[in-house]
Write a structure and sequence with these properties.
Number of domains: 1
Bound molecules: orotidine-5'-monophosphate
CATH architecture: Alpha-Beta Barrel
Radius of gyration: 19 Å
Catalytic activity: orotidine 5'-phosphate + H(+) = UMP + CO2
Helix content: 40-55%
GO biological process, one term: 'de novo' UMP biosynthetic process
Keywords: Decarboxylase, Lyase, Pyrimidine biosynthesis
CATH topology: TIM Barrel
Strand content: 5-15%
Order of helices and strands: HEHHEHHEHEHEHHEHEEHH
Number of strands: 8
Strand order of the largest sheet: 1-2-3-4-5-6-7-8
Pfam families: OMPdecase
Enzyme class: lyase
Length: about 300
């Protein structure tokens, strides 16, 4: 049966891309053209600028990405106006037929996870197609998301081995049998994933594996062959395209790679006076950065260097 992994793989084939662009808008890095009328004492005014910024990004990347990934914190910080900007961003991305991965990193006791799952995988205003889930509360924390995803033909990405430098402090803890915690979690995810595969042999239950940990990814890929990986940490966090071939299967599928700052603020590297960048120039630079990242990833995902 077709599941959301199939939708993601079909979209990736259609666009010839495994790139996901993160929508992590930070007003500090917006040029003057978007800030000229902003009243910094008003969350509404800042949120309007954020929405304008997101529209520029979406216009620039829509033809070259498999999905966009709004990070919730950047919207929540502006309260209800920030959430409104997220809602509008999601509907704008939908109007461009983009897949939406809400990077919400949610997870709670069962009943609360079920409420989060309705918010992010139901048909509400900030609902997307997939959501990142923190599985460290245990199965009653993550199963409601998996059940909602199955019911609504959507998908989840469970945090497994995250890209940040201190992820080893918890995720690499050694268990009594000598196995690492994230590895045990990979085995648990595989038990669910292998029972829910679609026509491309992948489950709608994906896993987050950081681009900064290619060695670990190689072993995880072997243990968890039925989950699509969401691979953040490419670009600004130091993850390099040439190290990423191990994340993919032999057909060049099995992973989507996300970059936020490296793409959405690409205009900051272009001139010393980036504050003066115009909207047209921004769109051009962001478009070029997305095409470059897409091509770098295409070069490695079909390589036999794994
Ligand atoms: O779930 C995520 O998206 C995520 C997981 C992870 O392990 N590491 C990670 O950086 N992320 C998110 O991916 C984005 C990375 O942003 P850049 O480093 O600017 O590309 C941020 O929004 C992070 O919250």
């Amino acid at each position: 049966m077709v599941n959301f992994a199939d939708v993601l793989i079909d979209e990736s084939k259609k666009k010839n891309s495994v790139l996901v662009v993160g929508l992590d808008p930070d007003v500090k890095f917006l040029p003057d053209c978007l800030l000229k009328n902003v009243d910094y004492s008003s969350n509404e005014s800042i949120s309007d600028a954020i929405y304008e910024f997101n529209k520029i990004i979406i216009n620039a990347v829509a033809d070259h990405v498999v999905a966009v990934k709004p990070q919730l914190a950047y919207y929540e910080v502006y309260g209800s106006y920030g959430i409104k900007a997220l809602e509008k961003t999601i509907s704008y991305a939908r109007s461009k037929e983009l897949i939406i991965i809400n990077d919400a990193k949610r997870g709670d006791i069962g009943s609360t996870s079920a409420a989060y799952a309705r918010a992010f995988l139901g048909d509400g205003a900030i609902s997307g197609d997939m959501v990142t889930v923190n599985p460290f509360l245990g199965s009653d924390g993550y199963m409601p998301f998996i059940e909602a995803a199955q019911e609504n033909n959507k998908g989840v990405f469970l945090l497994l081995k995250t890209s940040n430098p201190s992820s080893y402090e918890i995720q690499d803890l050694k268990l009594e049998n000598g196995e690492l915690l994230y590895f045990k979690l990979a085995e648990e995810i595989e038990k669910l994933a292998c029972k829910t595969i679609g026509v491309n042999n992948y489950s709608f239950i994906g896993a987050v594996v950081g681009a900064t940990y290619p060695e670990e990814a190689k072993r995880i890929r072997e243990t968890l062959p039925h989950s699509i990986f969401l691979v953040p940490g490419f670009g600004a966090q130091g993850g390099k395209a040439e190290d990423l071939s191990v994340f993919f299967d032999v057909s060049g599928n099995g992973a989507v790679v996300s970059s936020s700052r490296g793409i959405i603020y690409s205009y900051m590297n272009e001139t010393d006076d980036w504050n003066k960048t115009t909207e047209n120039e921004m769109q051009g630079y962001i478009n070029e950065a997305a095409i470059k990242a897409k091509e770098q990833l295409n070069e490695v995902r079909f390589s036999s260097n794994r």
